[in-house]
């Protein structure tokens, strides 16, 4: 079933790509330009590393807005009540604190798991995969969303793991190949990194779409039982 879920996710992603771009592109553009501008100072420079850390912190702070807005939009499409960009962003900003805590707590748990021989980190990553959907679409608090995800993901562990692994492998392979093809490690080609970063930033939303597809199947089964 994993490949069927992937096929459905790709179809859904393609049909809603224009709206996903409208929601996410301004944020991705901000981070890509900032990272390239700051990174031009050389990664050996402590000040550059400090500024890049600040950009990453800004990304974490804004991630609940743009990713939450995408989840809100996906849910509205399934309900046949598509929201506008402004409405999606409004929903996400209303849940910003809860979703930020989901990402912080999940990130800490997964990072700790990866330090314990990697496998625990992967397990925790999958077990909390539904938390952001529960937070946005069910209105749960961060702890409620994480507990809900922990409770509901065991039956969907292997479809989630296999599907996300395939997407990760494809993304990494394409990004490395494209970087080598365009010579992005050369200073004269540094500006080409911006559209590449934008492209793969948008590709990452496919992870959100795939997780949402599995989440919807889980909710459908729950409602039928």
In short:
The chain is mostly helical and 225 residues long. Helices cover 82% and strands 0% of the residues. The protein contains 10 helices and no strands.
Q: How would you describe what is shown here?
A:
The structure is a single chain. The protein has one domain (2-224). Helix content is 82%, strand content 0%. It is built from ten helices and no strands. The protein has helices at residues 2-15, 17-39, 46-78, 85-94, 96-115, 119-127, 131-137, 142-152, 157-182, 193-224. Helix 1 (2-15) crosses helix 10 (193-224).
Key terms:
225 residues
Element-by-element helix/strand order:
HHHHHHHHHH
Radius of gyration: 18 Å
Strand content: under 5%
Helix content: over 70%
Number of domains: 1
Shape: globular
Number of helical stretches of at least 4 residues = 10
Low-confidence stretches: none
């Amino acid at each position: 079933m994993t490949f069927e879920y992937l096929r459905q996710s790709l179809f859904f992603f393609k049909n809603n790509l224009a709206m996903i771009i409208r929601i996410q592109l301004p944020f991705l553009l901000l981070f890509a330009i900032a990272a390239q501008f700051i990174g031009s100072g050389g990664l050996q420079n402590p000040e550059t590393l400090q500024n890049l850390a600040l950009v990453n912190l800004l990304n974490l702070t804004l991630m609940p807005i743009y990713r939450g807005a995408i989840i809100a939009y996906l849910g509205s499409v399934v309900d046949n009540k598509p929201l506008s960009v402004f409405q999606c962003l409004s929903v996400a900003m209303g849940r910003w604190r809860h979703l930020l805590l989901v990402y912080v707590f999940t990130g800490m748990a997964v990072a700790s798991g990866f330090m314990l021989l990697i496998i625990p980190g992967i397990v925790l990553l999958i077990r909390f995969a539904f938390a952001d959907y529960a937070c946005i679409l069910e209105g749960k608090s961060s702890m409620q969303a994480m507990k809900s995800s922990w409770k509901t993901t065991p039956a969907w562990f292997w479809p989630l793991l296999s599907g996300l692994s395939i997407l990760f492998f494809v993304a990494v392979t394409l990004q490395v190949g494209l970087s080598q093809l365009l010579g992005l490690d050369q200073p004269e080609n540094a500006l080409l990194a911006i559209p590449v970063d934008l492209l793969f930033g948008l590709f990452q939303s496919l992870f959100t779409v795939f997780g949402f597809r599995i989440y919807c199947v889980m909710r459908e089964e729950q409602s039928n039982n």
